[in-house]
Amino acid sequence: MSAFSYLKDSLQNLVAGLGTARDKASHSHYAIPEMDDQQLLNAFRGSWTAQKGVTIPAVDACRNWRNWQADKDQIELIEAEEDRLNVKGKVLEALLKARLFGGAAVFIGTGERDTASELKPESVKQGGVKYLTVMTRRQLSATEIEQDPQSPRFGKPKAYRLPGSQVEIHPSRLVIFIGTPHPDPELAVGCGFGWGDSVLLAAMPAVRHYDETVANVVSLVYEAKIDVINIPNLMSSMQDKNYERLLLERLRLAATAKGINGTLILDGAETHNSKSASFGNLPEVIAKTEQGVSGAFDIPGTRMFGQSSTGLGASGEENTRNYYDNVASRQKLEIKPAMSVLDECLIRTALGSRPKEIHYSWAPLWQATAKERSDIGKTTADTIKTLKDSALFPEDALSAASVNLLVELSVMPGLEAAIDQFGAELPDEEGGDDLPGPPSDAKPDIEEIDP
């Protein structure tokens, strides 16, 4: 864009200095925020708002975990393998460290010495995954960036290296989590190469504003009421060296008398009055800084500060649902892709093979009440009955789909196991309650007797 086009497209006022070098706002710019790992750790340990901003989204993402869709025996084996490897705990630890320091990874330990080669899940046998280890970006340094546009890792590190050694780890052996990713890693300055930024880096101004505001309000409480005593000829009398001692003794006796009987005794020439601080607008000031913290971490105030929503008819449910939707989107867009290799290895190390039908879905964060679950069950049953009466689908197909629907909605969680045990056939309605007997046209067996 030429200089003439810039002047033409920009709002300027030469008299007022708007948009010119005289405009103070024209000299504002963004600098690179800098916080080393020790400062990040100090903020995490010293500020509960910073700590909650780091931990809440990570804990919520792993709180209800996920539901495997497979046969009952297969699910039990997979979940047992998850417990043995502590998958949920390791992922939570990596997410916390990634959000705090900018990056972390879970190393998939298979017992192989060659960690520089690609980990292929199809080569993992039953019990092949031995352990999982969490490493931060300080413990893993990225090597050079992949420049081959035909590589699936284009623009990402080719490998990671342990500090102080030549041991390289292929990215497929790592479940990599990034705190705040950079749109262009090559332009990122002031962070670990190949990693992202801490979530505290952009949120710390809002955290400091809140902490400083609350600290100042607490200090103001100590000065909520100040007694002012006017003493004639105070400054001229201070020239006497003994006057200061006598003055302090005088004030001590006056304070003692006031504390005992609530009466302040003064000389006839002295005057007394009190000044009280006003706290009327402080709750609004604190509320504004709380909104800044909630916006910085993208966490609603009801979850961040444990406050109830204000306003006519406000329950906070909408904000909570939006927040849970945000966490669910991160589960699908960030956590699940990062765990793809680990999940493939997990299925094989638990079962010894990889059935194609096995998959999982993240458990919903929003927990329905008993009434809501009852309404969902009634609506689902009515829907199934309507579809059956319409005769649009085969009964066997509709039955199988109905079972899946009832189980996924947690209306009847044990229905699949019950069907496997007792069968899916309906009882014969024409037989009544009597025990089954011979057909009506059957002739009774008559034993032949020789004459």
TrEMBL record:
Q: Pfam families from the xrefs?
A: Phage_portal_3 (PF06381)
Q: Where is this region: Disordered?
A: 422-451
Q: Which residues form the Anti-CBASS protein Acb1-like N-terminal domain?
A: 39-385
- Protein name per its UniProtKB record: Putative bacteriophage protein
Quote the biased-composition stretches of kind Basic and acidic residues, using this chain's numbering. 442-451
